[in-house]
């Protein structure tokens, strides 16, 4: 009996120890690296300025994107995320930094969070924006080049936000933050307010900054097991009637196999006044951009060939003779490895 009791206690202690080991919080490292080749098809490639007016993937020839390293720690009730970026894409994404530190231009996100309950999470620090369909990391985007809507909306915020689960279908986010893209500290004492209302994967977003107000809708629907349709629509108004923009983008994507998907981004973007996004230098310009992207996955590597056509209402580009042109066609081949 003594031997049986001893063995039983040993078994129970081992099981408890194993459960504690399994539940023990741990530090995880993830991220990505990306590089690409880009060439204009109807314009010269020896002039840096001939590229779409949107962010990223605008360098000629063989170019690098960024190395992204994310350290995260998830405890039972709290955790943190430290997201660092190195390279041209990362530098462009956090263009307002460094304001204070010499290393500020490598911090993409840096925040801590507290799971107050199953329905409430508080987050404080620097986090990527909640508006829009696209994000900074190329891993989470289907198209490698980015849209005008993404490029001229906010990139990141620094402040505090509350994510609230209202039910299985409804969610709410409320946040108070520095003015947009002021990610290291607040230089002028002004703040912005953000809100997001979610319903089954569809999100209505509001951002009220001291410089602008933006309303954004982001969502999508699975038409079938292999066909998905995403959508993004936004309207931004600068204060004091200084202009703004309105745009809509559709993202149909068709999976032809487990390893290959083809998708199209069709975007219509309109400037109110001389907002400066399209690059025409005149008021009330508009641009229609079509981006056809293939996505081929090999383990953790994704290869993306991409054909893009930007067509503006006014001269926004230059042709092979460096003469003003309303259209630009370009080709991109990207390689993205995630870990």
Automatic annotation (TrEMBL):
Transmembrane segments: none annotated. The keyword rRNA-binding does not apply. Residues 1-18 form the signal peptide. It comes from the Bacteria. Keywords: Signal. InterPro entries: BBP2, Porin_dom_sf. Gene3D superfamilies: Porin. This is Porin. It comes from Seonamhaeicola maritimus.
